[in-house]
Amino acid sequence: MDTGLNRENILIEALPYIKRFHGSTIVIKFGGHIVIDEESIKNIIKDIILLKYVGMKPVIVHGGGPEITRVMNEMGIKPKSVDGLRITDEKTIEIARMVLIGNINTKIVSKIEKEGVKSIGLSGKDGKLFTARKKGKKKVEIEGEEKKIDLGYVGEIENVDPELIEIMTERSYIPVISPIAIGQTGISLNVNADSVAGRLAHELNARKLIMATNVDGVLKDPSDKSTLISELSIKESKSIIRDGTVEGGMIPKVKACINAVNKGVKKAHIINGEKNHSILLEIFTDEGIGTMIKKN
Amino acid sequence: MDTGLNRENILIEALPYIKRFHGSTIVIKFGGHIVIDEESIKNIIKDIILLKYVGMKPVIVHGGGPEITRVMNEMGIKPKSVDGLRITDEKTIEIARMVLIGNINTKIVSKIEKEGVKSIGLSGKDGKLFTARKKGKKKVEIEGEEKKIDLGYVGEIENVDPELIEIMTERSYIPVISPIAIGQTGISLNVNADSVAGRLAHELNARKLIMATNVDGVLKDPSDKSTLISELSIKESKSIIRDGTVEGGMIPKVKACINAVNKGVKKAHIINGEKNHSILLEIFTDEGIGTMIKKN
Amino acid sequence: MDTGLNRENILIEALPYIKRFHGSTIVIKFGGHIVIDEESIKNIIKDIILLKYVGMKPVIVHGGGPEITRVMNEMGIKPKSVDGLRITDEKTIEIARMVLIGNINTKIVSKIEKEGVKSIGLSGKDGKLFTARKKGKKKVEIEGEEKKIDLGYVGEIENVDPELIEIMTERSYIPVISPIAIGQTGISLNVNADSVAGRLAHELNARKLIMATNVDGVLKDPSDKSTLISELSIKESKSIIRDGTVEGGMIPKVKACINAVNKGVKKAHIINGEKNHSILLEIFTDEGIGTMIKKN
Amino acid sequence: MDTGLNRENILIEALPYIKRFHGSTIVIKFGGHIVIDEESIKNIIKDIILLKYVGMKPVIVHGGGPEITRVMNEMGIKPKSVDGLRITDEKTIEIARMVLIGNINTKIVSKIEKEGVKSIGLSGKDGKLFTARKKGKKKVEIEGEEKKIDLGYVGEIENVDPELIEIMTERSYIPVISPIAIGQTGISLNVNADSVAGRLAHELNARKLIMATNVDGVLKDPSDKSTLISELSIKESKSIIRDGTVEGGMIPKVKACINAVNKGVKKAHIINGEKNHSILLEIFTDEGIGTMIKKN
Amino acid sequence: MDTGLNRENILIEALPYIKRFHGSTIVIKFGGHIVIDEESIKNIIKDIILLKYVGMKPVIVHGGGPEITRVMNEMGIKPKSVDGLRITDEKTIEIARMVLIGNINTKIVSKIEKEGVKSIGLSGKDGKLFTARKKGKKKVEIEGEEKKIDLGYVGEIENVDPELIEIMTERSYIPVISPIAIGQTGISLNVNADSVAGRLAHELNARKLIMATNVDGVLKDPSDKSTLISELSIKESKSIIRDGTVEGGMIPKVKACINAVNKGVKKAHIINGEKNHSILLEIFTDEGIGTMIKKN
Amino acid sequence: MDTGLNRENILIEALPYIKRFHGSTIVIKFGGHIVIDEESIKNIIKDIILLKYVGMKPVIVHGGGPEITRVMNEMGIKPKSVDGLRITDEKTIEIARMVLIGNINTKIVSKIEKEGVKSIGLSGKDGKLFTARKKGKKKVEIEGEEKKIDLGYVGEIENVDPELIEIMTERSYIPVISPIAIGQTGISLNVNADSVAGRLAHELNARKLIMATNVDGVLKDPSDKSTLISELSIKESKSIIRDGTVEGGMIPKVKACINAVNKGVKKAHIINGEKNHSILLEIFTDEGIGTMIKKN
Question: Fewest beta carbons within 10 Å, which of A143, D10, D18, E52?
Fold first, then answer.
């Protein structure tokens, strides 16, 4: 009975947070590492369903790098690269599309449906949810000579039409979105999942953007977990990108957060999705557990 | 951080209950003892607001005996009675109406509004929410002689038109209802608040009826709290009324529960509203803390 | 048959007025004198129901001074005053609330419902219909010395949210409003019923504001009924307040009319609500029977 | 001022009738005699507009015999007849259509619009409001020999689709309907205006059917106005058709009333439309002024 | 089978045109010559029904000069004229109204309904679709003397309220409109059908205005069909009116086209409505068959 | 110009078919052979878009056998089989899901969007569009011994909830559906695309079910195209399955047609989707080009 009473107190303590985010759209992005870990994906979906039940409108964007690599390996296809730059050729985009839309997205939707909540899988192609243009060639200097390399079927988001997501969230579906865009001529283009999440958060007037990664947040010293930065202004965020504190895969995440917050999303969060209930902790406590980025 | 993690686990444990009652109407009745205790009323309202935020539609019915008595005393009016039977004369019904609608109801609505949730005070008169007919004269035997005594402005519910409540819950208001009915000729009639709650639970197709009293539930031995009966079927409930286990003010409560459950309300609960968060405990745990009445 | 024919002619003569006010909101305020007179209240309600049936949207605001005094007397409570200024202490506001909301409002709603028209009782607390701030202390000079006196639980309207009234009039209910506002901290504040009526007329874009009093209108010489002023511009209204022609309880009425007309209400009327069908006479004849205040 | 007070009393006396018919559809048919009399048509339209403003939904069906005859005369066309039976040949139906739809209907609609109320002219063709089948040949005996005579473009109502009328009354238009139906092959057929009114009253679930004629109602002795029958049951109505009390143009009127009442219209009335405000008198008084036909 | 395959190819070729005009309002005006020719009217209606079925919203405006003249002749009435100017006296407007609304409009509506499509006949009077003011007197010089001649019941469009057309097209009706307007005092006024079509095209934000006449379009040399002008800018259109290339009945058509295009209608077309399927040809081919007027 | 005139005549000839199917749902299934042939898929999509534009609601179900085989080969995976029965193991269902949902479905949706029409890709998982249960083990006799073989992740449709399709077709999207169902535990199950099409046609109250295959229809002698059967009743269809005329992949197609027609779909068609515009030919001509199955 004792624990029971505690339980109720905790529910009551959650009330102010529930009130604050009631009716708000929350865009949650999680990457491939989480998708392939059965325990992590199960936990994160439970959290998201809770958000839905207490009145928020969660929208999921997922990545899937590790899965794509796994399938390519299985098919005996070696990732192409020119001078160290990865190239997305026709074969690769086909596999990416199959893995992201056919495999990962479907899996997430199925898991949500299994919990009794309606869900729908979408990608940029559906109702032209987001279109992209092929990225221009990239200049690289090789042996003193400048060369332009075509990165292939990789795109940058051009236009977003959130109608379809709104139709579905209004009717209590949780939309799950794969980062495959449609290009002018109908071709598929791979776009960065972080940018998709950031841009959708902005276009949906989301209250929050949550990037669930496999690290604890932005660290001053990536090798030392105790150097987690709890809060960043836009200005500070830009500065730690410039000075190299942020590097690698964290860069597009921080950039997407900056863009979203600049366009009106109240707060963006980078958290460790592999930690149990990290989403709830970030939303239902003041201190949070990751890095929070806000305007000032 | 430790407690934080516990917190999230508890929220997640609440999920199945939240799911189960999502969108359901829950009728909650609390009596005068709770209304006059600042701490109890504050706590019970917090619980009810939480129910609202996690997707239920709470409807409040309140009593007010002690307050009516207090005001009558202040006005120097002595409660009338004939042969031990309390008589509600014109003066008394006027005071009951003033206290219930003008004082108690207003106070509850104000407390809810203060928490940022919309609320509206109603009684039987508004949109003919519920009408009553005057109770017939009561036969009593006095000194071997049978007499009929007119109990005055006391009524039994005749007709219920829940339209107004539905208009308001649809628009996210919490309705607070005083047990004053309108009679055929437009007169006010005092009706038992427990019956009002039971009848409304039935007419609104409520999922649950919760009677928040000042005892822990139905006790086998009223003087011994350890004899709490956790669960009763309708049959058992009727039997313990007949055999006298249930007595006094508990009788109309159990009867209202029986009627509601008979008409389709899934479960009815008699709990101690003075215990902190007893409503949440009853709803969000399997074991509950009071007496639960269900069909079989 | 003869009278019958006359009847039809009169209905036809009413047509232009019916057309003009079709679909318009009409705010009608009547005071405590009318409420306690069975004949007057019955007649005024009949008039208001007629307005509803010919397509207007009547909204009622009521006062209740005499009733409050009566109940206070019955309870043996003497109205407090400091240096002649009436003080609304905690006891007084409680009684005011009980009498206005619990007694008078309920009575009016019941009478309307009895006529087969749907009605609902409201006060400032319901859906935060109107909030008030406590009036500042009043400066008075006593024996050459300046003192500040706290008038107690008396407020001035701060914010009005007419949503609830609009929900109800759209669904053919006649709303009946008590002049009890909700303050910041959830406390009850007594506000002047004339100001409530004036402010609601403005916020509801009412076509007309009708003040049903117990005098014939604004009189040049209050002791001589033959000096009724039929029509006043805003400028004239202000001038007769300044020069003392208008005094006592008539001042807030004229001020409320001025404010409402200034904010877009077409016409405001001060009439004698105790005269039979004075509301209909004022609305359905060009000459009217009281004082009409308009912009120019 | 005196008459003013009377006026208000009369409005109040009209209240119960206004209540009773609020929201009801009232089908009013008037014939050609009224249409060509400027005074009569002006008055009858005023009455109908009043009905609309006090909340009823009037639907007008008109006839036009005298006008058709006038135009035929002007065009030098002699009404055809075979053995005394009038024949509607192609020329005649064309003129009927032009006069009814182009002239009379347009005139009525214009007069209503001039009063500031929206109106629309319709006939059976619009949205297939009502279709008809050509009447079969009529058997007549001439000089001992039986002959079959084709009456030409005359029809009997087959199917009614009231959608168009309902669209318009919902949007506050008064529909004005000419008795020209559309036949299977798209041809125009003249149908009896009384039957159209009766059938529409039934299909629209009208509360009342009013036949405004140029006589006072059903008379026991057509030559003696004092023999007016105030009330008839269906049984009585049928009997006075059989026994010849009702004759000529009154027969289809009474039959249409019988049919409408049989199909659920509460009451049907035959009144003198040339008498000032006879419609209002019939609706707003208990005694009425014409003949009322009801079920029993 | 061979032709069958061709058929499908042609349907597919129509697809871009169907897409382009999907959901667009198309105002089509045809004159009296077409109405009286059974073959032409049947064909033009088939075309219009096809437009409706492939997703456009056709609105028909018709004329009726030849029919009016025919009926006037039959009635032995000679068209009045003063000094060569035609005068529309009361008799004439009555006949115009009867012929246009009662005869021609009804006929068109019946033909559409016969094809299984819902249609409704309207004129300016219905819902005050369009009002007109009487044209001023016309100055003419006769024998060196200036005289002013009153042209009678002829009007110029003043105000258009397209609500009624929009109600009907939304519900899949094809509206058919007669060029009879309502004047201030409720009188009928004859207005030029070309102007009605042009003005409605503008007020309805039509995509196209099609004038179906009995000539092939605008000809450089009216006597030589081979001189058809396929395309005209507004500037060129004005110039060929000024220089006299366009004359007679073609002038109001070109002017209506100019006005409509100036107000936002994309393209206006003058085609030969007597040629089979000329409407479809003009809409479903790039080259068209008549004269097309566009902005530049 | 000549061909132009023909074109219009052909459009007009299509009118009766357009009318007949206006607003109807048409379920079209096409298999893997069509999907991989660029020309065929382009043509079939053009046809379907035309159906949409002339007012039908097309719903696409696709197969994808050849593509799945191709990808399996690329991945060096050999289709498993036990005693000649194909087994869908975990690897195989994963590839099927990726190919069907990620590759083929996406491709079809992209091609439709490219034509300017909104489309959305769905499978059984989305909103639990269709659920399936795993097929029971199959009994086979091997070397005189009876064995039960588990076919793996292959399912039979259990429940269909067409809500999502209806939401989308109402909003003018063309839904494209992959034959992957969701099982009880959230697993993916491969279901026969022909059954999916048949069942959806039934649940959506489709007017037509069109099976676009790579043969001309049902042939009496599969080796002789001239033996095409144009029309079959349900009875005849069942008989030619029993007598072996129909064999192989044609069996589930004919069975799906039988089931759909039995449940209320008017007509089912088996056509050659590789023939140009075969869908249009089947819909817009009376004779059709394939095999049509109807009730009797």
Answer: A143
C-alpha–C-alpha distance, residues E46 and F12, integer Å: 7
* Residue range of the domain that includes B88: 23-294
* Residues of chain A contacting F64 with CB distance shorter than 8 Å: none
| Nearest to E14, CA basis, from F26, F18, F110 | F18
Interchain CB distance below 8 Å, D280 and C50: no
| Subunit partners of chain B (3 or more CB pairs within 8 A) | A, C
* pLDDT band at residue F288 using 50, 70 and 90 as cut-offs: confident
E abuts A (3+ Cβ pairs < 8 Å): no
**How confident is the prediction for chain E on average, in pLDDT?**
90
| Cβ atoms A283, A13 nearer than 8 A | no
Is residue E140 one of the residues assigned to a domain?
A: yes
Structure tokens at C105: 């409002």
Residue with tokens 């008078």: C104
Q: Which tens digits make up the pLDDT trace of A265-277? A: 999 999 999 988 8
Q: Report whether F79 contacts E41 (CB < 8 A).
A: no
* Mean pLDDT score, F236-263: 93
Contact list in F for residue E46 (CB cut-off 8 A) is 12, 15
- Model pLDDT, residue F1: 34
Contacts of E158 (CB under 8 A, 6+ apart): E130, E131, E132, E133
pLDDT of residue A13: 77
Task: Assess whether pLDDT exceeds 80 at residue A174.
Answer: yes
Q: Model pTM?
A: 0.87
**Which contiguous run of DSSP H or E holds residue C182?**
strand C180-182
Interface test with B, best of A8, A216, A287 (most B CBs within 10 A): A8
Nearest one of C48, B230, F5 to E275, comparing CA atoms: F5
Percent of chain B with pLDDT strictly greater than 70 = 97
Cβ contact A53–B10 (<8 Å) = no
CB contact under 8 A, C125 and B114: no
> D214 lies in a domain?
yes
Q: What is the CATH number of the domain that holds A278?
A: 3.40.1160.10
What's the rounded Cα separation, in Å, for the pair A107 and F94?
10
Rounded to an integer, the average pLDDT of F14-39 is: 90
Size of interface D-E (CB pairs under 8 A): 109
Q: How confident is the model at residue B3 (pLDDT cuts 50, 70, 90)?
A: very low
- The domain total for chain C is 1
Average pLDDT over residues C101-124: 95
H/E/C letters for each residue in chain E? CHHHHHHHHHHHHHHHHHHHHCCCEEEEEECHHHHCCHHHHHHHHHHHHHHHHCCCEEEEEECCHHHHHHHHHHCCCCCEEECCEEEECHHHHHHHHHHHHHHHHHHHHHHHHHCCCCEEEEECCHHHCEEEEECCCEEEEECCEEEEECCECEEEEEEECCHHHHHHHHCCCEEEEECEEECCCCCEEECCHHHHHHHHHHHCCCCEEEEEECCCCCECCCCCHHHECCEEEHHHHHHHHHCCCCCCCHHHHHHHHHHHHHCCCCEEEEEECCCCCHHHHHHHCCCCCCEEEECC
Please report whether residue C274 resides in a domain: yes
**What distance in Å separates the CA atoms of residue C55 and residue C49, rounded to the nearest whole number?**
10
* Contact call for residues F244 and F258 (beta carbons, < 8 A): no
Mean pLDDT computed over D145-166: 92
Task: Judge whether A8 lies within some domain.
Answer: no
Neighbour-count burial of A90, counting CB atoms closer than 10 A to its CB (0-12 exposed, 13-18 middle, 19+ buried): exposed
Q: Which of A17-21, D113-117, D160-164 has the lowest mean pLDDT?
A: A17-21
Per residue in A47-73, pLDDT (tens digit) is 999 999 989 999 999 999 889 998 888
User: Using a CB-CB distance cutoff of 8 angstroms, which residues of chain D are in contact with residue E164?
Assistant: 120
